[in-house]
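Write out a record, fold above all:
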Amino acid sequence: MATLMDVARAAGVSKATASRALQRPELVAEPTRLRVRDAAEQLGFQPNAAARALTTGRTGLVGLIVPTLSNPFFAPLVMGAQQAAEETHSHLLIAVSEYDPEREAALADRLSEQADGLIMVTPVGTDAALRERFRRRPLVLVDRQVGRLPAVVADTAAGLAELLGHLLSQGHRDIAYVSGPAGSWADEQRRTALTTQAADAGARVHVLGPLPPTFDAGIEVSRSLPRGATAVLAYNSYLTLGLLHGLTVAGLRVPEDVSLAAADDLSTLGATTPPVTALDVPLQEAGALAVTRLHELLAGHRRTVTSRLPAHPVLRASTARPGDPASGDLLSRPVDSYVTGAS
């Protein structure tokens, strides 16, 4: 098995330079770094992670906490983070919080014992808890903004506002927003953007929720849409698929009786009947950028900024101009306990 000294000899450098080139490449001139890297690859040299941690104080591990793996929404984000980690010769440690703040905190504590830094996706902990965690360990938030903590945000609030503008231009004036889980920062941003824009346009947005972002919840809330609503926006694809199923079972046609759109775009939404209008959210880019921001922190660049990635509507056949105004009477069941607010 090749040793670090073997690599140094093959590259024509000292053992210390070879170590820096492999462990702290930013400290070594580019020609030397490439020479050492090529020698290591030719010899099949694998750095010892424990030795690296002793000499650099870093493990090469990045902690990534996601709220769930049952929702494929997060899969592209994890893939983007994985690809960025591979490019920086680091490895991901993935943990799942299940939207539970106590579990999320315990997982973050555990990962902090091993990882150089943390990425927390849509965390549900308090602002104070996240600020304290940032003081103790490099931390990047995804789809959550807390003051000046480093964050990567897919701007679904602006994207939904653009989608609402599309519905308003079609003539919709009474719209339901089926919101997501309690405590969701992104959901709060969306609600605020939608209700403000609707009020400015002389329209109305009914906010239904909070709801778990599941197919079953979408079916259930489809039975409780407000009278007269001609369009429905949903927090995620799973709720949207449940809504589409529930509306179809109830004999309502999409979009003839009610238009339907989602705040994210799983591939299944383009294959439904009708295909569903949705936001194209750059999740893979968000995951990769979060890893990049974390490595910047580890390198000593204390930039406390929020990187915003745009999300744009993909218009499909599930949204159209409202039909006969009387068709709104089909949504005649009273609004029940799912409704938490309206503007």
User: Anything to note?
Assistant: Confidence is low (pLDDT under 50) at residues 324-343. The two ends are 69 Å apart (CA to CA).
